[in-house]
């Protein structure tokens, strides 16, 4: 393209961000990215969000990418700034989340002197196993090309994080060249499924006696939820999910998550299925009870639809694999099935299903969803959350026992921001901060256990500083509940490292300039939530919950014999 | 479920995948797996250097457009595979490399042969891993095939420690259709519509065909598309057989000093339909010398990472090229889009032929490489498969040896590992025993892997080897002549290759004139042994300036 005006490397970096339409950059400043951030400072279309620790910048970039589908950009200085980013980038890699990490790196003349050189570490190799692409740039004239490559790779096919390290002196150097418009260097063309395979898939569904759809995160990345519902209605097929909220739980055919904390109604449908239409689903360990036939029946014929052909038959043998964008494949299937005439004579199937769901609701009630007990029953907390929040609220969850209870008791209407397969504690509510930035008009609430919250508590300052008014609901029982349960069952109640000192989190929040309240009685939950949402500030609800043995894990949790 | 050994499980999966040949060099850590191969219908072809095994697997995979398998022992056996696997990686060839490893109790003790094999192969494979437990062997091996053959193809590496090979597992048979899919994705309608819109506005569209056309077996559809649209098809320099120049719309390859008609049609292009190409440096120079700046580019590739990498695109399509070509063909016929460029292409080809003819001196003595390349083309049947090495002689082959049919050539120059062509040609011949298979290489190249003559003789792999003999590394000589004032560090002597072949119990001849070459090739074509033809040139033959630049 045009090669007239000289620009600095940093200016070209920012030009490339603008070409991508990047609105936020999350990070912590340091000497090696002064030039880059100085250009961002002068670019009103990009908002820089300063976090307290680089890890939070990666979590926020990941959350932003998941909630918007656009790349999430984070930055840090070299050395410790880079190593602090590892957990978040690894989490994004597990979740196929397009995070673009643009970091400073050691001056080209100092590079390669190893441990004697301040801040030097081999960043390119550090990030290689946890990214789709990792590159240190040595020449200013190649910055534009590698920036394009980074975004192309992050957003192409199965998405994922990428890393670029740009030495400080390279950011200062001048070079000609303008940014390319994004449609000139990467294709967003949708991959359609092979039509014969689609015909076969349709025939398998039509012949099936107890089919089920198994929805994975690929459906979220493809924004295909509506097509899933359409197919379910057309054919009368129950929809189970691998992760909570991938399909709204208030749809008649939606039966909720399967896995270690699956809903019985979903587990029943899947374990009795004769055909499983798996959509963008990796059959991960948690979803499949450690790759056994306890949930995924060995007799079921599996139709796998995935953009990534290396997922086919990876964990379970399949009947048919269709490479393609989930949404496009579903659209083609729906058209094909419609053209064959009316479908869905499965009223009985639906009635059975609705009945099972009603029983499930009753069970939740009987187990405490309306309980007035003190300390608070977590199911009551979840139920009250549902009462207060509208369907457009964005929810985040954390790993640990809180995750199980959230799965169990909360009714989800959209995908939950959850730590996912790597499961970094404290990442969920940081992702929620990014969601609030992306959708300031929607309520954003994170349910974060006290142990997890203590890992990233410092980022409340980030929320206050940037006026991010999310609500963090902290079920507070001063234990790592998940570990404690295992210590009770397998280690004679020796609570090595699982009993926690947790301060009064409401006061901590207030001292950081946020809204904070402690909630001890069930009747206080709803008013406190309403005040928190109305406060216009970041808010923390420190909810004292029942930490006794029977409340450590939801009662449906599957146990695998030889695992803790 | 039956209990079987890990080694047996390796072979069971190979059988499941329909593998018929493996290439190897034996050693203590691969011996268990080899013993299972011995007891199976799979033919094991032993080589004399592991590099040969890797290149043969590469040639074999290219010839069948499917997986090629090579095996080696631990340590030096494994690292000897590296050049071959790297070449497969660069050319996107699905080679499965299986290396033995010591018993795991020996590891991390700096034991004999021990090296981080998984780490060594990581940067040059799509996937490299060690199978620590016998019960993971079927899963990991199936994953290896899945990854090697999915999307943009490429090599994978699995290290199998002896204790995993000797251990036992419950083996459950499967079928590739249960764990991978060969069915390509379809092409989105909207994109096709956009491409058709661009075509309708174009005056002189040119198709640029690359390697993905061959891997997708789309040569015939491409010919139909070119005929329907009546537009020229040029190819990248490593895949001239993606669209034969003998086709009325075929313009041959592009590249400075190599292409002629290809460059000429490209110069006129206002729309380039780039089908499965990576716009490599030697074809394009990464600038606008060959690819005109004014041309709009539609770039189709199965690999999203290629689209828009070198040149900004007008439309990028991530899809199997064969699928796109077929869809475009339907549209072109429906809408009766035709550019009627046949006459212009004919004219361009006539002119370029004159230029190329003027470079040939059949009378020159000693022999000139241009004349050798042209003569060889006339001597070999059109369906002969030609494997071409790197080096300066290859530039003359590119310019004067026309490829007449699809799937008849394999260039080694994605990576450019000199000496690759001879073992590759053996792999091709194993896969296509009914075809004439010819290796074109230089004298420098041949001496890198000539020990595989013994393999060829022992295994009755009867290829014809042509050695363009200039007693040195001619491309280096060209540089050192022009840029280093004639300080040559590239000249060497050679044994008489025909005689050497006979010592290996193969056959061969040394030729100094074209009539001798003619006679030798005809003898070679009829020979029941590998046949090596030593074509004598002079040291100066390949140092022609004008070919400089990478």
Task: Detail the topology: elements first, then pairings.
The complex is a heterodimer of chains A (564) and B (550).
Chain A: E1 6-8, H1 9-19, E2 24-27, H2 34-41, E3 47-50, H3 54-68, E4 72-76, H4 80-83, H5 86-94, E5 99-105, H6 123-127, E6 133-136, H7 143-155, E7 162-167, H8 168-172, E8 174-176, H9 195-207, E9 211-215, H10 217-221, H11 225-235, E10 239-241, E11 254-257, H12 264-271, E12 275-279, E13 301-306, E14 320-323, H13 326-339, H14 347-369, H15 378-388, E15 394-397, H16 401-409, H17 428-438, E16 444-447, H18 450-456, H19 460-465, E17 471-476, H20 481-490, H21 505-511, E18 515-519, H22 525-534, E19 539-544
Helix pairs in contact in A: 1-2, 1-7, 3-5, 3-17, 9-13, 11-13, 14-15, 15-16, 15-22
Chain B: E1 2-5, H1 6-16, E2 21-24, H2 31-38, E3 43-46, H3 50-64, E4 68-72, H4 76-80, H5 82-91, E5 95-101, H6 117-121, E6 127-130, H7 137-149, E7 156-161, H8 162-166, E8 168-171, H9 176-179, H10 189-201, E9 205-209, H11 211-215, H12 219-229, E10 233-235, E11 250-253, H13 261-268, E12 271-275, H14 281-284, E13 296-301, E14 315-318, H15 321-335, H16 342-358, H17 369-379, E15 385-388, H18 392-400, E16 409-411, H19 421-431, E17 437-442, H20 443-449, H21 452-458, E18 464-469, H22 474-482, H23 497-503, E19 507-511, H24 514-526, E20 531-536
Parallel strand pairs in B: 2-3, 2-4, 4-5, 5-7, 6-7, 9-10, 9-12, 10-11, 12-13, 13-14, 15-16, 15-17, 17-18, 18-20, 19-20
Antiparallel strand pairs in B: 1-8
């Amino acid at each position: 393209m045009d090669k007239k005006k000289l620009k600095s490397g940093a200016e070209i970096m920012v030009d490339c961000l603008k070409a991508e339409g990047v609105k936020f950059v999350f990070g912590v400043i340091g000497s090696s990215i002064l030039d880059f951030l100085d250009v961002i400072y002068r670019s009103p279309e990009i908002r820089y969000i300063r976090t307290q620790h680089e890890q939070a910048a990666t979590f926020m970039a990941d959350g932003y990418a998941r909630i918007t589908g656009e790349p999430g950009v984070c930055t840090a200085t070299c050395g410790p700034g880079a190593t602090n980013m590892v957990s978040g980038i690894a989490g994004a890699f597990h979740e196929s989340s397009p995070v673009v990490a643009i970091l400073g790196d050691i001056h080209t003349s100092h590079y390669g002197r190893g441990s004697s050189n301040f801040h030097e570490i081999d960043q390119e190799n550090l990030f290689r196993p946890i990214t789709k692409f990792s590159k240190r740039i040595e020449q200013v004239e190649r910055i534009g090309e590698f920036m394009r490559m980074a975004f192309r790779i992050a957003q192409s096919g199965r998405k994922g994080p990428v890393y670029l390290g740009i030495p400080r002196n390279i950011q200062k150097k001048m070079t000609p060249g303008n940014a390319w418009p994004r449609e000139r260097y990467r294709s967003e063309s949708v991959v359609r499924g092979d039509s014969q395979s689609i015909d076969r898939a349709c025939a398998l569904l039509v012949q099936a006696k107890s089919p089920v759809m198994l929805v994975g995160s690929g459906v979220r990345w493809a924004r295909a939820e509506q097509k899933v519902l359409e197919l379910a209605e057309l054919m009368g097929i129950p929809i189970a999910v691998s992760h909570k909220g991938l399909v709204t739980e208030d749809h008649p055919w939606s039966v909720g998550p399967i896995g270690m904390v699956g809903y019985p109604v979903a587990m029943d449908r899947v374990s009795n299925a004769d055909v499983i239409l798996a959509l963008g689903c990796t059959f991960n360990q948690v979803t499949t009870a450690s790759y056994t036939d306890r949930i995924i029946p060995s007799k079921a014929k599996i139709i796998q639809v995935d953009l990534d052909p290396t997922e086919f038959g990876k964990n379970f043998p399949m009947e048919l694999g269709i490479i393609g964008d989930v949404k496009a494949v579903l659209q083609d299937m729906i058209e094909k099935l419609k053209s064959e005439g009316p479908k869905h004579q499965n009223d009985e199937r639906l009635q059975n299903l609705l009945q099972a769901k009603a029983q499930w609701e009753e069970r939740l009630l009987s187990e405490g969803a309306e309980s007035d007990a003190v300390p608070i029953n977590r199911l009551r907390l979840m139920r009250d959350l549902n009462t207060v929040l509208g369907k457009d609220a964005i929810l985040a969850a954390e790993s640990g026992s809180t995750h199980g209870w959230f799965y169990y008791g909360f009714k989800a209407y959209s995908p939950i921001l959850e730590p996912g397969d790597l499961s970094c504690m404290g990442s969920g509510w940081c992702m929620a901060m990014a969601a609030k930035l992306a959708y300031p008009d929607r309520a954003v609430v994170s349910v974060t256990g006290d142990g997890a919250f203590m890992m990233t508590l410092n980022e409340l300052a980030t929320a206050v500083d940037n006026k991010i008014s999310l609500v963090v609901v902290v079920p507070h029982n001063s234990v790592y509940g998940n570990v404690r349960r295992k210590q009770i069952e397998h280690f004679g109640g020796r609570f090595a490292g699982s009993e926690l000192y947790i301060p009064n989190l409401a006061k901590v929040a207030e001292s950081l300039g946020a809204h904070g309240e402690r909630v001890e009685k069930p009747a206080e939950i709803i008013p406190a939530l309403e005040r928190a949402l109305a406060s216009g500030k970041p808010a923390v609800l420190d909810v004292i919950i029942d930490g006794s043995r029977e409340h450590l894990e939801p009662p449906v949790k599957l146990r695998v014999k030889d695992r803790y | 479920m039956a209990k079987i050994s890990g080694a047996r499980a390796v072979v069971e999966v190979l059988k499941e995948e329909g593998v018929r040949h493996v290439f190897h060099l034996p050693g203590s850590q691969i011996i268990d797996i080899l013993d299972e191969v011995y007891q199976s219908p799979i033919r094991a072809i032993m080589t004399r250097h592991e590099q040969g095994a890797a290149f043969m697997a590469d040639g074999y995979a290219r010839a069948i457009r499917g997986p090629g398998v090579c095996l080696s022992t631990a340590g030096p056996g494994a690292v000897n595979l590296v050049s071959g696997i790297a070449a497969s990686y660069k050319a996107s060839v699905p080679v499965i490399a299986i290396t033995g490893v010591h018993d795991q109790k020996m590891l991390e003790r700096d034991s004999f042969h021990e090296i981080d094999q998984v780490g060594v192969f990581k940067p040059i494979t799509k996937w490299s891993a060690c199978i620590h437990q016998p019960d993971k062997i079927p899963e990991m091996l199936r994953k290896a095939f899945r990854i090697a053959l999915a999307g943009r193809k490429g090599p994978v590496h699995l290290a199998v420690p002896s204790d995993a090979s000797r251990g036992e597992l419950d083996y459950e048979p499967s079928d590739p259709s249960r764990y991978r899919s060969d069915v390509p994705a379809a092409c989105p309608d909207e994109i096709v519509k956009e491409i058709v819109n661009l075509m309708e506005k174009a005056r002189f569209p040119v198709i640029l065909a690359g390697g993905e056309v061959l891997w997708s077996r789309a040569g015939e559809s491409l010919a139909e598309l070119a005929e329907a649209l009546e537009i020229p098809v040029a190819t990248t320099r490593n895949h001239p057989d993606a669209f034969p120049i003998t086709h009325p719309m075929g313009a041959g390859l592009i590249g400075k000093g190599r292409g002629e008609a290809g460059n000429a049609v490209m110069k006129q292009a206002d729309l380039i339909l780039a089908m499965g190409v990576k716009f490599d440096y030697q074809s394009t120079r990464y600038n606008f010398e060959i690819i005109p700046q004014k041309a709009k580019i539609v770039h189709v590739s199965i690999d999203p990472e290629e689209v828009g990498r070198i040149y900004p695109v007008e439309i990028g399509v991530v899809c199997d090229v064969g699928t796109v070509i077929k869809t475009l063909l339907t549209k072109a016929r429906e809408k009766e889009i035709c550019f009627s460029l046949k006459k212009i292409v004919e004219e361009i080809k006539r002119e370029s032929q004159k230029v190329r003819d003027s470079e040939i001196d059949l009378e020159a003595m000693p022999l000139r490489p241009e004349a050798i390349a042209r003569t060889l083309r006339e001597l070999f049947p059109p369906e002969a498969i030609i494997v071409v090495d790197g080096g300066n002689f290859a530039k003359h082959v590119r310019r004067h040896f026309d490829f007449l049919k699809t799937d008849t050539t394999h260039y080694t120059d994605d990576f450019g590992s000199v000496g690759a062509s001879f073992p590759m040609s053996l792999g091709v011949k194993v896969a296509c025993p009914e075809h004439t298979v010819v290796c074109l290489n230089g004298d420098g190249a041949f001496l890198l892997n000539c020990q595989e003559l013994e393999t060829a003789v022992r295994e009755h792999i009867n290829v014809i080897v042509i050695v363009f003999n200039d007693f040195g590394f001619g491309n280096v000589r060209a540089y050192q002549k022009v840029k280093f004032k004639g300080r040559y560090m590239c000249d060497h002597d050679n044994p008489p290759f025909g005689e050497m072949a006979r010592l290996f119990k193969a056959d061969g001849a040394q030729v100094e004139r074209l009539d001798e070459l003619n006679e030798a090739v005809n003898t070679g074509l009829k020979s029941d042994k590998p046949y090596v033809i030593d074509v004598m040139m002079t040291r100066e033959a390949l140092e022609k300036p004008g070919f400089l630049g990478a």
